[in-house]
TrEMBL record:
It comes from the Bacteria. The lineage of its organism: Bacteria, Bacillati, Actinomycetota, Actinomycetes, Kitasatosporales. Keywords: Signal. It comes from Streptomyces benahoarensis. The keyword Signal applies. Residues 1-23 form the signal peptide. This is SH3 domain-containing protein.
């Protein structure tokens, strides 16, 4: 048998769900830095570089000034857009990801990417 407190809690939750007042929690893979974009589900607030010692640039071009060096692992990301072409170890891409406080990093260096495609889950700028 349910205690009075458990029964009251169950009724409160059921009532909130029935009226739409119960907020749904994000998916288990979501992190606090994730943001929701209208119509696109969860958008990553971070992404992982497969390469180590990656440079960030002031603008989304290799010829642009290097603003940060030795990036690697999981980095915060803001958005992505097309820029200059990059070829590295057989990978080719013209999408660049903005790493806040660091600069622009070629999508060629991010995990889960594909040639000439944006990094999955990172919103456009």
């Amino acid at each position: 048998m349910f205690s009075t407190q458990k029964r009251a809690a169950a009724l409160l939750i059921a009532g909130a769900a029935a009226t739409g007042a119960l907020a749904m929690a994000p998916a288990a893979s979501a992190t606090p830095s994730d943001v929701h974009a209208a119509g696109s589900g969860i958008v990553k607030g971070s992404a992982t570089l497969w390469a180590k010692d990656v440079n960030a640039h002031q603008k989304p071009y290799v010829s642009s000034k290097v603003t940060a060096r030795h990036l690697g692992g999981t980095v915060p990301v803001k958005c992505q857009k097309k820029g200059g072409n990059v070829s590295y170890h057989g990978y080719k891409n013209n999408w660049w990801v903005n790493v806040p406080g660091k600069g622009w990093v070629s999508a060629v260096f991010f995990k889960d990417g594909a040639n000439w495609k944006p990094v999955p889950g990172v919103r456009g700028c």
